[in-house]
Design a protein that fits this description.
alpha/beta, Hypothetical protein af1432, Rossmann fold, 2 domains, two-stranded antiparallel sheet, 18 helices, 7 strands
């Protein structure tokens, strides 16, 4: 089934569809610690959670889109446990460190392969990544800051409802956690007015600084005097970044890593040190003179683009990020029309590493599917 079919499929049909895939078979073979999951393997727990969603008191009040987000969050929330499960040498317990982080990436790939639209895919992928956060919020030094932060990454109400289903969809031999722990997330989010919407900062710059500071003040209203505006492009090779810039930002000078590579006659597979050095020099020249510009590179991984965003922020620029991700088939076709064709194998490898940007990174974000 493709995504259009999955959205209207019954719960049992979705379960049957999933059961035929290797990632699901791996969950069936993955044991869990009986202390927390005496019901058995990961797939057994997953199905229990999916069925618990329909038992939620507010299930019928949700929109079809919200129901789909929750169903596929439940389906994929532990999909990376087979990749991370191990025996703790100190305690002998079965543990799955960072399974939510790896699960985000795997969920993204699974959803992309079945044709899920970009916005919904990223909503579900982030839910998978943060699905375990609500139970721990009462142990945070500043719960309000925690729910405010997540309100710009996920829907706090949906995250809370999923956490309820996750808690109820298991047989546990311990009572060290309760639904009251989860309810504290709901209370904290409601008090901060971000339970069913992103927290309303005083300005986009206030939000931008909140995510960049160690101990941010929620009520701080920063002075805005941007040195310039930087439009940052992100997307796989062949995604259409050059075309978008030509159509929408044709008046801006462009700092392009591809062009710099060409000028320096450096292959993309060679050491990129000189390319990065030259690009930084050109960017700094624009930033020092207050000249708005566009920065064009793949920027598909958070750590890589973060270094550039840090540079622009240090000079007081307002940062807009445009991320473009058409279907892979379209990217392959457009790639063939490029002056420098990137091997399809490299594009597929990069696609497996995608970390699309979020509102936590920039002043303004645009996600496009081509």
């Amino acid at each position: 089934m493709n995504w259009n079919q999955l959205q209207s499929a019954s719960l049992e049909s979705i379960i049957d569809w999933a059961a035929s895939h290797p990632w699901c078979k791996a969950m069936q073979a993955c044991a869990q610690d009986a202390k927390w999951h005496s019901e058995g393997d990961v797939w057994t727990h997953t199905q229990m959670v999916m069925h618990q969603l329909h038992e939620l008191e507010s299930w019928q009040d949700l929109s079809p889109h919200e129901q789909n987000v929750l169903v596929f969050t439940a389906l994929l929330h532990d999909v990376a446990k087979p990749l991370t499960t191990q025996i703790d040498p100190g305690t002998g317990n079965v543990v799955s460190p960072k399974h939510a982080l790896k699960g985000e990436q795997l969920a993204r790939t699974i959803l992309r392969d079945c044709g899920c639209d970009l916005a919904t895919r990223e909503e579900i992928a982030r839910m998978v990544r943060y699905h375990g956060r609500p139970v721990f919020v009462m142990h945070k030094n500043d719960p309000t800051r925690e729910v405010v932060r997540h309100s710009w990454l996920v829907n706090n109400r949906l995250l809370y409802l999923f956490a309820l289903a996750d808690f109820r969809g298991r047989d546990s031999h311990t009572n060290t956690r309760s639904e009251e722990d989860l309810h504290f997330w709901k209370i904290a989010a409601e008090e901060a007015h971000c339970y069913d919407q992103p927290y309303r900062f005083a300005s986009e710059h206030a939000r931008f600084l909140f995510f960049r500071q160690t101990n941010p003040n929620l009520h701080y209203v920063p002075h805005e005097n941007f040195s310039c505006h930087v439009t940052v492009m992100a997307g796989l090779p062949g995604s259409g970044k050059d075309r978008w810039l030509a159509q929408h930002k044709g008046d801006l000078p462009v700092v392009s890593l591809d062009e710099i590579r060409g000028d320096l006659m450096i292959d993309p597979t060679d050491n990129q040190g000189k390319v990065i050095q030259q690009a930084k020099a050109v960017c700094r020249r624009h930033l020092r003179t207050g000249n708005s510009f566009a920065f064009n590179a793949t920027n598909i991984m958070q750590m890589t683009r973060g270094r550039w965003l840090d540079l622009f922020a240090d000079y007081g620029a307002r940062i807009e990020l445009v991320y473009i991700e058409p279907p892979l088939e379209v990217i392959f076709q457009q790639n063939k029309a490029r002056d420098t064709v990137v091997p399809e194998s490299i594009i597929r490898r990069l696609a497996g590493k995608l970390e699309p940007p979020t509102w936590a990174e920039v002043h303004h974000l645009t996600l496009l599917e081509g």
